[in-house]
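Protocol step 4 of 6: record predicted structures for both targets in the notebook before any analysis. Target 1:
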Amino acid sequence: MRGRMLMIAAILFSIVAGSAFARSEKVTRFATEYGSLEATLTVPETAGPMPIAVIVPGSGATDRDGNDPRQGLRTEVYRHLAEGLVEAGIACLRYDKRGVGASATPEDLAAPILASVYADDVVDAMKAAETVNGVDQVFLIGHSEGALMSILAAEKHSPAGLILIGAPGRPFGQVIHEQLAAQSIPAEVLQRADEIMTALVRGTPVGEVPPMLAPLFPPRARPFLASILAIDPAKELSHLSLPTLILHGTTDLQVSERDLELLEKADRSAEVVDLPGVNHMLRDVGEDRAANLATYKDPNAPIDDRVVPAVVAFIREHRK
C-alpha cells in the first residue's frame, strides 16, 4: 500500500493547514509498576472529542524531546513532531523513558532494566493518555527502538492505531552488527561484538569487552540487551491486527530497506509511506552523509514537511 498515504496526506493537510489550533502544554507524571515517569502533555484547544498520540522514544538515553546529551544527540525531533500534530488538532503525550531525564528517580531506577519493563511503561503511558480530558482515542507512535517497544505494548493493550517510524524489522543483534560493519571497525572487533551478543542471549559470561565496544556493552545495560537482542520485530508485528502505518526514510542510517521489507511482509495490510531523502531524525538530507549526521546535533532543523501530514492523515482515516 505504498504511496497511497502520501496522496491522502496531501489532500487532508490542505484542509487543516492554515487553521492551526491554539494549544496548552503542561508537565505531568504517570504511574507505572515502578515509580512514575515524567511527560509533557500538549493539548489543542478544541471543543469536542480528540485523538491523542503517545510518542515512544528511541534507543539509549533519549528523552521526551528526542535528545541524549550523553551521546551529543540534540534533535528535538519529538517536540517538532508533537507541535505539528497538535496544530492539526491531535493531542500528544511524550515522556522521558525510564532512567532518563526527570524519569531517573530512585523508584524509577529500581525497576529491572528489561525490554518487557519498557514495553509495560508504554502501556502505562497509553492508559494515562486515555484519561486526558476530551480524549476519545489513543494512537501510538514509536520511533527507532521505540517502534519495537510500541509493537510489544500493543500486544498487551491495543491502541486505535500504530505508527512505526524508523523501525527495525530484524532482531537487534543483526541491526547492531550491520551498524558496526558500516563503521569499518576491525574485523576482529566486529567478531568480538557478535560473540558478546551471542553470550548475552544465551546467558553465558560475556568475558573481556574491547575498549571500542565498551560504550555499547556497559555492565548496567547488559540485562536489557540480553532481553532485546533475540526479539524479532517483524514476528511480533505479525501477531497484531490493528491499523498500522510505517514511515521509512530512504537515507536512514539506522535501519535499511530490508527492515521495511520484513515489516511489510509481517503485516500485509500496513500502510507504508516512503520518504525519499529523509533520514532517521526525519530530516530531508538527500544523499549527503555529512549533512545526514549533522542533523543529529541540530535541534533547530525542521522535520521533513511530509512527515506530519502522513501521520495526521492516518490518524484521521482511522478515527472511529
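Target 2:
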Amino acid sequence: MSTPDESRQSPAPDGGDDVWAAMRRTTQARIGLGRAGSSLPSRRVLEFQAAHAAARDAVHEPLDAEAFAETLSGLDLGDPVVVTSRASDRGEYLRRPDLGRMPEDLSALSETGAEIGIVIADGLSPRAVVDHAHGLVAALLDAFEGRYTIAPPVIATQARVALGDHIGEALGVTTLIVIIGERPGLSVADSLGIYLTHLPRPGRTDADRNCISNIHPPDGLHYEVAARVTAALVDGARKLGRSGVALKDTSRQAAVENVDAADERTVDPS
C-alpha cells in the first residue's frame, strides 16, 4: 500500500506511468521531476545536491599541470610549457578575473613563428581538461592533416581566455587556439570550449574571437566535430585575415551542397 506522499507523486520518478521518461533520455536538463506532496521527491533532491557538489569540485580542484603534460607526450608536438596567470590560487582566480587574464611570467616561451599555437587552459573546470583535452587535441591534429606548423603546446593554469593573447604574441603564432574548461553547470561539470583568435595580441576582445563550446562527448559535442569546425575556422581566418564576428563557420557548407546536389539528381525530369 502506498503512503499519501507516494500516491501524490506525479509523474512517477521511475518507469511505469512516467510520461516524461522518454523525453528525459534526450536531454541533461532537469525536466519532469515529479513531486512528493508540495516538494520534490527525495531522489531528485539528492540528485540536485550531487550535481551541485560536482560543479563546485570541478571549479575548485586545481589542475596538476605536470601530470597532465605527460599525457600529451604521445602527440609529437614537442615538450609542453607550463605558465600561470597572476592569480596565485583558485580562490584568487575566482575573486579576481582580471588577474587570470594577465601572465605571471612568460620567459619560458620562445618565439616560434608557427602558424598555429595551442593553449590548454584550466579555466573554470580543470576536470574538463583532464577528461577531454588530450582527445580534443588529437582530433585537431587529424583535422589539420599536416597543413600547418604547430608550436609546442602551452598549459596555462589559473587562466582566463584573454591570457592566450599574451601567450600567442610571445610565441609569434599566426592563429591561436585556446582550449579551456567551461563554467560547470548542474547538468555538465566537464565541458570544454575552444576560442580561436587570428593574429593574437593583448587588447583583443571577444568580438575578435570565435567560440566552439559544449565539447564533452558522449553527451556534448564530439571531438571530431569540434575539430572539423575549428579547422574550417582556421582556414577561413587565414583567407580573411581576421577572426571573430566577421568569420563564419563554413564546415557544414560542403555537406549541405552535397545533399542539394543529390536531391537535384533524384528529381523526376518528367
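Step 5 preliminary note on target 2. Confidence is low (pLDDT under 50) at residues 1-11. The chain has two domains: 1-34, 65-254.
Proceed to step 6 after PI sign-off.
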